[in-house]
Amino acid sequence: MRVLVISDIHANLQALEAVLQAAPPWDEVWNLGDIVGYGADPNEVAQKAQLLGGVVVRGNHDRACTGLEDLEDFSDAAAEAARWTQSILTAGNRNWLAGLPRGPLQRAGLPVQLVHGSPFDEDEYLVSPGHAQAVLRAYGQASGARITFFGHTHLQLGFATNGDEDFRLAPLYSSTSEAETFELSVRRGAHYLLNPGSVGQPRDGDWRAAFGLFDFAQEVFAWYRVPFDVAEAQRRIRRAGLPEFLASRLARGQ
Q1: In Å, what is the CA distance from 216 to each residue of 35, 172, 208, 211, 219?
Q2: DSSP-derived secondary structure for 132-158
Q3: Which residues, other chains included, contact 139 with Cβ-Cβ below 8 Å and sequence gap of 6+?
Q4: How far is the C-alpha of 175 from the C-alpha of 181, rounded, in Å?
Q5: Mean pLDDT of all residues in the chain?
Q6: Does residue 76 sit in helix, strand or coil?
Q7: CATH of domain 2-252
């Protein structure tokens, strides 16, 4: 089975369309949340996410944009975008987003689990190796999941442990303008935390849309970066009257 792993689309229709066009054939989609928020096309992106199906966990912006999250801890730009999204979501899309389950979700019959932030807290950021390894040891092995797929950080990265050694993982690319792939062989006996990166708002200095593909037969996880129509995504954000920062950051990958 080949699984398309996506996260943090953030209502960026142009990035999502580029990902779907560039992705190799897949059998199932795993969506790690934050489908809406920040971007200018929440209804269109929510509709596409529903059509893709598969397994979906909620993100903090999915809660915020449906009125389930207090906005006091959001930045000014994020809160303004959440309120705007609340005002234009259709009833059907709002109800679907509000009904998404929190992680961790187990995929029946497979040694994996899906979360937005971390297995302990859906809003927790897993960035530092020490923190990630503590999570792996405390939860990953006990849960029976060899791999935990997570999002939320908007960074393509991963962490692994074989019980004796710990590893920080990240893709290496040769450009910042072309479509590229970086493959990671998953070792038997090791446990992993893997983040596909953000489809719609990367924050690792690389503006290209990010996603992942896991091939169970080959035991390979591939990170991908693909260009998308940044200018159109920016135009739509500005036309919607959303904060300029949300448009300008897309070109910087920040």
Answers
A1: 25, 22, 26, 17, 5
A2: HHHHIIIIIHHHT-SEEE--SS--EEE
A3: 119, 120, 148
A4: 11
A5: 95
A6: helix
A7: 3.60.21.10
User: Of 153, 155, 193, whose CA–CA distance to 59 is shortest?
Assistant: 153
Residue whose C-alpha is closest to residue 91's, from 43, 124, 50, 58: 43
Residue 155 · residue 128 · CB < 8 Å: no
3-state helix, strand, coil in the chain (%, to 5): 35, 20, 45
Higher local confidence (pLDDT), 245 or 69: 245
Measured from the Cβ of residue 193, the count of other Cβ atoms closer than 10 Å reads 24
The residue extents of the domains of the chain are: 2-252
Is there a contact between 232 and 14 (Cβ–Cβ < 8 Å)? yes
Q: Length of the chain in residues, anyone?
A: 254
Query: How confident is the model over 176-225, as pLDDT tens digits?
Result: 999 999 999 999 889 999 999 999 999 999 999 999 999 999 999 999 99
Euclidean distance between CA atoms 174 and 202, whole angstroms: 17
The region that residue 47 occupies, defined by phi over 0 for left and psi between -120 and 50 for alpha, beta otherwise, is alpha
Q: Report whether 85 contacts 65 (CB < 8 A).
A: yes
